[in-house]
TatD family deoxyribonuclease (Leucothrix arctica), 268 residues
Amino acid sequence: MAKKKRDIPVFEHPIIETHCHLDYLEDRTLDEVVNDAKLVNIERIITIAVSAGNLDKVLAMTQANETIWGTQGIHPHDADEYNDDVEAKIRENATNERIVAIGEIGLDYFYDHCDRAKQRAAFESQLQIAIDLAMPIVVHTREADEDTQAILQNFVGQMPKRGVIHSFTSGKSLAEYCLGEGFHLGFNGISTFKTAENVREIVELTPVEKILFETDAPYLTPVPYRGTVNEPKYLPFIAEHIASVKQVPVEELLPQVWKNSMGLFFNT
């Protein structure tokens, strides 16, 4: 008989889901996903744009449910799609009050789905959008620490707002650079994996004032539900684990991370 998994913990203080892909959760309705998240005190959910094909879809989701907010941007996997028309769409949609950041943007040299020069060009163009619109950024970087830092160094002085390096799995050098420049680091279910000691080392060195929680649903489901489809409702497991790594009570950490999320994305 299979061992029953732990119930999802419910904490008194609300939690903000700063990074997921609600349009990829195709087996459940939007209301079902949001309602399950609310039952475990997830207060707000930010769903992330990644491609030309889901810019409008993400925006529509933010209009359909008051719990959902969104971003606009082209992921490095889809950098081939980036052109003047796509840029114009990002700029137009990003003026909506329910859009809180430019992203998911950055570099991915692990999969290399797109030519690296195109990835860098799309990243730089979207950093300029963030500068022009005074919005924070949501950055994806994988096996591209040096180029990510070099590009950020060229733009950070012009950025009215910083942003988050999401799903942080990069090295200590990039972490220290980004923290030094005022960026937040986003941590998700990877932090709960047995093999992710490198991520937990970054959690340890990250000030609590710079930590954000995310699921990256439907990917990277945290232990003990690893192997199933991820959803925002599993965020409390991540919060609990990060608190244990930081050696602070979870109910002490939650108000600070909530404040971090509100300050970065909601100007409060």
Observations:
- The chain is about 40% helix and 15% strand.
